[in-house]
Amino acid sequence: AYFGEITNKDKNQFVFSSTGTEANALLIAGLTEYLEKFKRVIVSPFEHSSFYGSLDYYKIPFELLRTDKSGLVDLNDLETKMNEHPSPVFVIYAANETGVIQPMQEIFSITSKFEMPIFSDLMQAFGKIEIDYSILEGFTFSGHKIGAGMGASLTYLPSKYLKKDFGILKGGNQENNHRAGTENSPAILAF
Predict the structure, then answer these.
(1) Helix ranges restricted to H, the chain
(2) Residue 59: pLDDT above 90?
């Protein structure tokens, strides 16, 4: 309930996992059926390797956004790509290596014209800067990035994008049947 309250998102659509890498992989895995409807997705070149690895694993074609010298995504390039083929967009909120914070409101103003969703890795932003969750359709964050210890990460998986019986691990009803297995309760509570 806590994460639903602070993000103003449906508490039943969060899935706990063990690492940020797993959280990102879970997001892509959950979106696979939805993403297959598009020629490609649009991705920033600053994503964690787990995003690119998952997109490759699920054979989801993607096109990288151009950037400027300061590390911001090129909004004109995004607009051009959206005009060519409107597509879902993946942009890391705050870069893990440079700390550059992307212009998410401006990105949203472009994607919303095309009614396309934004998904984001919030690992470096969550708990550190203000985040407008209302512009994000799906996102991930991890407890160890805010001092909660290792072993608890979270993915917000909106059910409207998931296939009916989506689950990355089967054999148990944990995490709304999306990830079977005993949760790491101490790490989750610290989170």
Answers:
(1) 2-7, 20-35, 49-57, 75-84, 104-113, 185-190
(2) yes
